[in-house]
Specification:
There is one protein chain. The protein is an all-alpha fold. It has 2 domains: 38-223, no CATH class; 229-305, no CATH class. The protein is built from 13 helices and no strands. Helix 4 packs across helix 5. The chain is globular.
Length: 314
């Protein structure tokens, strides 16, 4: 979701949650149910799973080299290529794809819109799947901790560098013409900066928590119980946090009319939202988080593989 609204009248572009945070009311009319849930997240996850499963299946079936690290170079190169191509591809077909949606050809738009447009387009988000797969395979292959940390550090540095280089004046973004090179490069830079920040947190987590002794991991796990609780249901919370934020906003507005007037009030409102969510998750935990997106995915994998998961075990 963008941090700034492009235009108060463009409800479908801004999304209902940023609109609500900025203007204190829901878009009128609110005609798109997808604005209430981060449904595009599920589509992106689904397309990425299909892409990565196909790619890795083809690689391991047809590879001729005995070099176990070749897959790392393949994923790193492919991910970098997707990142480089993304602004060019969006410039080339972004407006055309948008015209297909506006023309009402929704069947064709189902396949063209996710490529470059929308909240989570496949270009560049497929690159994130490549980078995630690279790190995941290296950990599953029990590579040396120093090697894994080095890979994550390289990705972090590259993403942060690209983000700083290509992110322009965010405040000036609303004035940029849509589907132009400047707007695409700015958007690319912001996404790279976000990814670099997330990989930095991942790097810190691996170095301080995962790649430590069993005693240290247990001690940190007990200290970070709140973070662990949110981490187990991160996708579910992400998908529903918009609905929760709007509901809380409507409830507190009579007593707290200035909750969305400035960043400080919005930050306090966000903290209040997080506290409410933590209470919900504590209760949900008693029922092993049944019904959550994560629970559904774990249950499905267990049924298909015949293996048990310890994700929701204490």
């Amino acid at each position: 979701m963008p941090l700034v609204a492009l235009d108060p009248s463009l409800d479908n572009i801004t999304g209902f949650l940023p609109y609500f945070l900025l203007y204190g009311r829901l878009p009128d009319p609110l005609v798109n149910p997808g604005q209430f849930l981060a449904l595009e997240t599920l589509a992106m996850i689904g397309w990425t799973i299909i892409f990565m499963s196909t790619l890795l299946g083809m690689y391991y079936r047809w590879r001729k080299s005995d070099d176990s690290k070749l897959i790392y170079y393949v994923l790193l190169t492919l991910g970098a290529a997707i990142l480089v191509v993304s602004p060019f591809l969006r410039t080339a077909i972004g407006e055309w794809s948008n015209d297909i949606v506006l023309s009402g050809n929704y069947l064709l738009a189902y396949f063209t819109e996710p490529l470059t447009n929308g909240m989570m387009p496949l270009f560049p988000y497929l690159a994130y799947g490549c980078f995630g797969g690279l790190v995941g395979i290296s950990i599953a292959s029990r590579e040396k901790h120093r090697y894994v940390l080095g890979v994550v550090a390289v990705i972090t540095i590259i993403m942060l560098f690209l983000g700083v280089m290509f992110t322009g004046d965010i405040e000036a973004l609303p004035g940029a013409e849509p589907f132009t090179w400047d707007s695409h490069v700015n958007l690319f830079g912001r996404r790279a900066l976000q990814l670099g920040f997330f990989f930095f947190l991942f790097l810190v987590g691996l170095a301080l928590l995962d790649f430590r002794s069993e005693e240290t991991r247990t001690r940190w796990s007990n200290r970070l119980g709140v973070v662990s609780t949110f981490g187990k249901l991160a996708l579910t919370v992400y998908m529903l946090e918009g609905v929760m934020a709007v509901a809380l906003g409507l409830l507190v507005a009579p007593l707290w009319p200035s909750w969305n007037l400035d960043l400080l009030n919005i930050a306090l409102f966000g903290l209040f939202n997080a506290v409410i969510w933590y209470g919900i998750l504590r209760v949900w935990k008693r029922y092993q988080f049944k019904g959550s997106m994560e629970w559904v995915m774990v249950w499905t994998v267990q049924k298909l593989s015949g293996k048990r998961s310890a994700r929701f075990r204490e």
